[in-house]
Amino acid sequence: MNADNWTILEIQDLDVNYGGIQALRNINLMINKGEVVTLIGANGAGKSTTLRAISQIVHVRSGKIIYNGRNIVRRQPHEVVQMGIAHSPEGRRVLGRQTVFDNLLLGGYVRSDQAEVKADIQRQFDLFPRLAQRRNQLAGTLSGGEQQMLAIARALMSKPKLLLLDEPSLGLAPAIVREIFTIIVNLRTTGVTILLVEQNANLALQIANRGYVLEAGCITLAGTASELIDDERVKKAYLG
Q1: Domains with residue ranges and CATH for the chain
Q2: List of residues 6+ apart from 21 with CB closer than 8 A
Q3: Which of 186, 209, 211, 189 is nearest to 198 (CA)?
Q4: Rounded Cα distance, 175 and 236, in Å
Q5: Residue 30 in contact with residue 219, Cβ under 8 Å?
Q6: What is the pLDDT of residues 15-47, one digit of tens each?
């Protein structure tokens, strides 16, 4: 593997329990720098749990999560952000009573370079012009699509090397979904590596380099995006 295409994240034999239920079992996956990798699967398959495990929001029972050569299991969530991993969660979870600007400012909370933080807010406004128009508007009054843009922009404020995107198309109109996915494709050109959880498997595989299929907490298939699109099992279960 050349210097521009090294492994940024590797998950080894990952097990996660919720109470007495095993949510993830023996998960193994890897992501190379600059890739878009997608996790597809039905509701409850463990996709969001995988992202939360990487972010250290949920407790890992066993296994390793190796980011840039270091095992980050047992790190605090804010340490994971400082190391270069940002998480845009399912359901957006913007701070509804704060302005768009303040949401973005809070996204850079782990950073000490305040002048550069302000410059990065302007970069987000350049990337998401609709947010620039609403910079002083309360986030809770934005449309669903605008809130999703804000959730992604807020995650980018920590200057991540790896961006975890959880269901960015959820509940959005098709035209807005296309806009969001165009932004995701453009993000890859800025050097951000992306792990994408998305129920719209067809759309996800169109922009991904590779993918993994999760079923009942286990990875059952893996391959390039084109291999998965052509796989009869994936077609039958996820591509309609």
Answers
A1: 7-238 (3.40.50.300)
A2: none
A3: 211
A4: 26
A5: no
A6: 999 878 899 999 999 999 999 999 999 988 999
